[in-house]
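Q&A log
Question type: sequence-to-structure
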Amino acid sequence: MHSFHLAVLMTSHDRRARTLSALRALDEQRGLPAGATLGVHLVDTGSTDGTPEAVRAWYPAVEVMSMGPDTTRDQALRVASRNSRSGGGGGGPVHGAPGGQSHPWTHQLWLDDGVELVPDALVTLLRTEAEAGPDAVVVGAVRGADGETVYSGRRGRSLTLVRPAVRRFEPCDTYDGRVVLLSRAVYERVGDPHKAFPHRLGDYDHGRRARRAGVPAFVAPGHIGVCADTPGPDRSREPGIGVREALRRVTSVRELPPRQWWSYCLRHTWPWAPWLMVSPYARTAARAALDRRHG
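Response status: OK
Response body:
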């Protein structure tokens, strides 16, 4: 068994150029341990821009599976994890020939296809794990084009974004799932994102479950990657849309669908769950009403 074999789990949907850039940055990682190997497992969710075909052409060693457009991001991530456990996606550089030797993985890396890793990202994640301990989740903070942190660990019931320190790792309660390193020991204790949560709530739930299982989580020093498509504010915050439209948006699957949000609150925030369940919708309605009145 290799001392380090990383199973990289990725999903994609209609972002061909960004996906290829993410794979290129992964391929250009430097300073990895001697004999380290990687296997990339990409699940595409119904792209119509030729993403799967482009990945197969440019990076033939990447294992690509195509699924329907109704497949959620966390569902696709679970499928990629299943594929990694089946032994597909051989080790070696992602630009290598397909059908290479497969290795049992020692780590999984969740990697969003919109994130370009900095050249020493993997080394930083592994160094952080060595310092924090193999039974810890290591989260990579991601900055936007303006240099500000856009994805990272989260703290508290309000899910406050954790900004990375320069030289030390920072504790967090849960995390955004853009860049997350899990050892096999951690995976066996926590598992994949739960099927009850389709999108970012699945990330937050995974972090809370890790903590409940006695697995700490830390944000690695510095920014691990760059996301050119910097996320804007939630669409329900758009000024002037009115209360009804704001509530429609905040309860959509892109933000906080009530059933999943209630499940998350019930699992992880009791006895504050009833208050936390209602508060984002009440704040959204109040904000929209004030915007409309002052507009």
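Response note: The CA atoms of residues 91 and 225 lie 23 Å apart.
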